[in-house]
Predict the structure.
Amino acid sequence: MSLLKYESQLREPLVDGNKDYHQVTEDIIRPIEMKPSRLWYIGFYISVALLLFGVYSVYREVTYGIGQWNVNKTIGWGWDITNFVWWVGIGHAGTLISAILLLFRQGWRTGVNRAAEAMTIFAVMCAGQFPIWHMGRVWMAFFVLPYPNTRGPLWVNFNSPLLWDVFAISTYFTVSLLFWYSGLLPDLATVRDRAKTKFRKMFYGVASFGWSGSTKHWQRHESLSLVLAGLSTPLVLSVHTIVSFDFATSIVPGWHTTIFPPYFVAGAIFSGFAMVQTLMIVVRKVLNLQDYITVGHIEAMNKVIVLTGSIVGCAYLTELFIAWYGQNPYEWYAFKENRANLFSPYGWSYWLMMFCNVVSPQLFWSRKLRRNITVTFFMSIIVNIGMWFERFVIIVTSVYRDYLPSSWSTYYSPSIWEIGFYLGTFGLFFTCFFLFAKYFPVIAVAEIKAILKTSGENYKVKMTDIEKQDAEKFYLDEVEHAH
Amino acid sequence: MAGGIKKFVVGSFDDEKVLFPAVKNVRKAGYKIHDVYTPFPVHGLDHAMGIRETSLHTAGFIYAITGTTTALTFMSWVFTKDWPLNIGGKPNFALPAWIPITFELTVLFSAVGMVLTFCYLCNLAPFVKKHHFHPRATDDLFVMAIECTDKTNDAEVQAFLQSAGAQEINVQVAETGWWIGRYHKEQKLYKEEKGY
């Protein structure tokens, strides 16, 4: 037996139950080979219905113009960009789990990384819709690319944060997709080699690219994963940093803040983990994967939530303090009157944000609550509502009262097509996620097998006995000969 | 499609603990291990088999600096030579403002390049089919294939594998390369009467 590392017996097992390699394959792959349940169909059809409503909303917007939305002269971004930033934020957890936690050698990531990465990809797909359709004349969307054209060529403005966004989001999407899919190859091969039906043999045969499990291929695969993790780590931090530049490099009161990059990144991880919790709590129950996504996994993610939630809270207070301390009347007005004043038109949204993001996650200082699935599920939804309002507060409250009081527009509320577009992205997200949960292994089978003998419950028990007998002999037998 | 048809003695192991000494002994006995197929990356197995380190990461670095230079030279050319724009009187060569795009392209080139190189080296692509020695090599077995030459005595190798702790042992004639095919159809790329 080869052990990559020695794991203390005090650590909670990451795989519960009496498992061997074959059992791991069985547990994770079986849902793919079974007919989907009634619940799956209901969920899937609701998602498709939402998606179709979204498609119709977008159709209205493209046909009749941006006037179909209630955005106006000062609130030009409204729900659209709020939703964009919200979805991009959600898309941060997957790569954080698979890249940063890989570099930090956190074993628990293996239980959730596959689904979280899939979630990331779908969330970024949803996010991308908003700026694209916000262009209005969407058939001109390719103008954002620096291609040789007949207008000069007139190039894009490389100094503009909006263009940085184009590069950041598309790179992030591509790299996440590659990372996710290269990790999927061995598991798709596992499904292929067990396949009984013609369709499955064909589909997974094509999808697994002829993966064989050769030692040399695994060696390259490991090297690839490590380098992709190394590349994705700064990438994931750069994406929301660049999104925050969209605001921070402007001179609008409430946006012009140097604290934005770290504050946005922490918020993104915060909301991303909340979304992972929402999904994983349902997935583990429906697909019967409680042995792989244990309460320990949920607790670990809750720790990240309380940490990032507190960073976000700290950023809110710093921002408020600096607005006062800076003594810029416009900046202070934006914070004092447009946001913190509960009786101003949008004051409620500021305090809702404060409650959801800063106050409520503090419950997770209690170990008992961190390990409570129901509490975690509700909290994950509260956090996502809170994080949506954070973006709403930033985008709307900073601009609805302009420098010119005659153009103040306090009555911005979204139109049905604006809401429909947002619901449509939920449809897109969940349609993709339902298909993923049905046709792909939701847990990285090979990675679970690789940690099984260090972190599996049954092996932990065995090893305690071996350890007791002779620690030195144990080391020589179990650890050293692998190297 | 490089490879060719060869004959192998194949043994499967159900525990890495047995596999490691077996690999060592097989190599010591002078047999040529074609490959060991495992359901997950077994750390240290590549060293035990005497496989050299991969240089994929070096390729990744080369792709990365290609991305960096592409981004920087392109943006400098556009903004200083091809179409200098006066943006608020700021310098045309605005290096700090180009860092985000330079970084993104570095990562993009490196990731895409590495994944393509990985697929190329391992012969991975949609519709590629290979011979798999044991279907459970992707499930729970560690499958060792030993290549036979004209001089190899199959029975001897089989007995050797048996003593090394292998579970299922058989002799297979197989194409070692890849071909275009689908997994729902059985294909034989060689004729039985070819001598094997």
Notes: Chain A has two domains: 1-19+456-483, 21-144+156-446. Chain A touches chain B through 75 residues (CB under 8 Å). Chain A is about 70% helix and 0% strand. Chain A has a mean pLDDT of 89.
